[in-house]
Write a structure and sequence with these properties.
The structure is a single chain. This protein is an alpha+beta fold. The protein folds into two domains: 105 residues, no CATH class; 39 residues, no CATH class. Helices cover 43% and strands 15% of the residues. Strands 1-2-3 form a three-stranded antiparallel beta sheet, covered by helices on one side. A hairpin with a 6-residue loop joins β2 and β3. α2 packs antiparallel against α3. The longest helix has 24 residues.
Length: 151
Amino acid sequence: EQVGENWYDLSIASQGRRDDLTMDFLQSYEGRGIDIEVELALQLGKRLDEQYEDEYKHGDATTRQECQTLQAANFIADWMEMGGDLGRHPMLSVRRDGGTDEIYGRAELYTCIPREVTRELFEEVHASILMSATLRPFDVTESTLGLDDPV
């Protein structure tokens, strides 16, 4: 199939509850152990993130730099821990850059359980207002979205 300029999603899930991309990676992996590697990457990412925070606080940087190492390590940790869970769907998306003709890819771990995404969002805000004609029954909405203290 030809890769175009728009993102094209490829399901990479296998029947064995672990996606093909992860299985191929683990079969060719020759390191000290993926858990050790991920933990080391998380530690490095946290140190870099603290450094970026300090640089911003002390005026050495005009903007707060995001730590891509920490983001990548967190993603890999989540992928390895939850990639085979029920309700999680590993996806690989590809597209071609029209200007350079290069092919780009991205791996994503989708969830079809709304509260896995919305709970954290609602916990970060002091208040939120939900408006919809389909909020009833309220207890189902609370459970689905992960609302702990609705009014």
